[in-house]
Amino acid sequence: MAEQIFPTKGNLLNTKKSLQLSQLGYDLLDKKRNILIRELMSLIEDAKKLRDSIEGTYVEAYQALQKANITLGVVDNVANSVPVENGIKVTYRSVMGVELPKIYLDKVPLKMNYGLNRTNYELDYAVICFDRVKQMTVILAEVENSIYRLATAIKKTQYRANALKNILIPKFQGIVKYISDSLEEKEREDFSRLKVIKVQKRKKEEQKNSAK
Q1: DSSP state of 102
Q2: Helix H or strand E encompassing 104
Q3: Which residues 6+ apart lie within 8 Å of 25 measured at CB?
Q4: Most exposed among 15, 17, 29, 135, judged by the fewest C-beta atoms under 10 Å?
């Protein structure tokens, strides 16, 4: 690559600018990567706590549902009476250019959409537990989606940073060295040539003076 670049001062200045931009780009990408990693690590910790909590809530809810099925029979009619959740809204926040979701679930009082004369406490408790699961699932979905987006962004940022660090920056450094060495060699040759010319000129003058 370096041999294909004509060694001029103009090319040297342009290559140095490209090198500086590449180094600046690497520094910015490195900072971005570190910020994204910190954000990712905090979310991973949150996700672990949420998974542990939601797992326990699921177990509790299914145990309550199992007791309700035992005491009331299979409660399919009650399940069919549960309305579809339409109160979810999604917005986004930006972290170093990465759009992370913020999921909101409308807070409305829990309603038992079934008659109370043919149900019992176990069913009521199961409904309460599953409502809690729904709320926790919304939070977990927000966190896990953010983790996925951050992990993807970190991978891309790492790839670009590596390309700058291992390919472009060494390439420009090599070109700068090649042009600088070539210009220095040319200056030495010009200096030697000029010195020889001066010596020859002085000899001619001496010869002229001696001929007189």
Answers
A1: E
A2: strand 98-105
A3: 164
A4: 17
Residue 152 has pLDDT above 80, yes or no: yes
The H or E element containing residue 203 is helix 169-211
Give the other-Cβ count within 10 Å of 200's Cβ: 10
Burial status of residue 169 (CB atoms within 10 A of its CB: 0-12, 13-18, 19 or more): middle
Report d(CA 165, CA 172) in Å as an integer.
11
- pLDDT above 50: residue 29: yes
**Residues 137, 54 contacting (CB under 8 angstroms):** yes
**Residue 90 forms beta bridges with which residues?**
103
Distance CA 70, CA 120 (A): 11
φ, ψ for residue 49 (rounded to 5)? -65, -40
Are 100 and 93 spatial neighbours (Cβ–Cβ below 8 Å)? yes
- How far is the C-alpha of 52 from the C-alpha of 140, rounded, in Å? 11
The rounded distance, in Å, linking the Cα atoms of 47 and 41 is 10
Class of domain 2-206: mainly alpha
Q: Which residues contact 113 (CB under 8 A, 6 or more apart)?
A: 78, 81, 82, 83
Q: pTM higher than 0.85, yes or no?
A: no
